[in-house]
Amino acid sequence: MTAITDRAPIVSTGAARKRPRGIGGAVTRWVGIAIVAVYCLAPFYWMVVSSFRTTNDIFDTSLLPTTWSLESYAQVFDSSNDFGRSLLNSLIVAGITTVLALVLGIFAAYAIARLNFRFKSAILAVIIATSMFPGIAVVVPLLRLFTDIGWINTYQAMIVPSLSFAIPLAVWNLTTFMKQLPHDLEQAAMIDGCTKWQAFTKILLPLAAPGVFTTAILTFIHSWNEFIIALSMANDPAIQTATVAISKFTGASDFQAPFGAQMAAGVVVTIPLMIVVLVFQRRIVEGLTSGATK
């Protein structure tokens, strides 16, 4: 009884000592989160606020518009800009690029992560190295090639170069994820009668779904925001993507930059991506962290 009475003050003292550190750590953590959030969201906030200013107030530095206006959005969707067509073009290019990158990336990642052959690390390093080239470095030779074969102003002229950057991203993410999946499940399925293909499609691929989904989101965002290749390979307004169309908005005169319309178009282009990320936030986090925790 005496021993129990003696231990109680020791436990209480320890908890009292930990409490200040816990509060300080929590405050530091929340301050850090607030700084990062403000740093990341401030440009988007300013773009949204500027999109609701009138043309005369576009250089106003107040935190909120003096006069709220939809004038810039009306300019964006004016029939002369054909911005809806540009959004459809972006969706086509980003969607096809994502699907092709996923199909090729899944098979490449499976081979590198699950099969035994020589120079796997060297092959993966070469694949990743190809994504390190700046986009502008490959534009000139590709422009010459596509001009000779008649691909200028076509979707494939934007999709094929985008794949050279999307596939390494997909292969890297999926290889890292598939390496963490246990080999025993695949071997058990083959012992039960599955072929190698059936074990891949019915066992391994469903388990890799979070990683595939995360890779699809990241690849789509990368392709949706691509600018240099789309600007170089398409000069026909009917085939241009949204990012290129925004850069070619014109003001009332040649010397007037349409900042309000460009801000409004930037909001229109960004909102779909934000909705996708917010809706599938849980799956994206699962895909990014599952490889590190298994």
From TrEMBL:
It is a multi-pass membrane protein. Residues 87-280 form the ABC transmembrane type-1 domain. Its main location: membrane. The chain crosses the membrane at residues 27-46, 87-110, 122-143, 155-174, 203-224, 259-280. Pfam families: BPD_transp_1 (PF00528). CDD domains: TM_PBP2. It comes from the Bacteria. Gene3D superfamilies: MetI-like (1.10.3720.10). One of its GO terms (cellular component) is plasma membrane. It is found in: Cell membrane. Keywords: Cell membrane, Membrane, Sugar transport, Transmembrane, Transmembrane helix, Transport. Signal peptide: none annotated. Belongs to the binding-protein-dependent transport system permease family. This is Multiple sugar transport system permease protein.
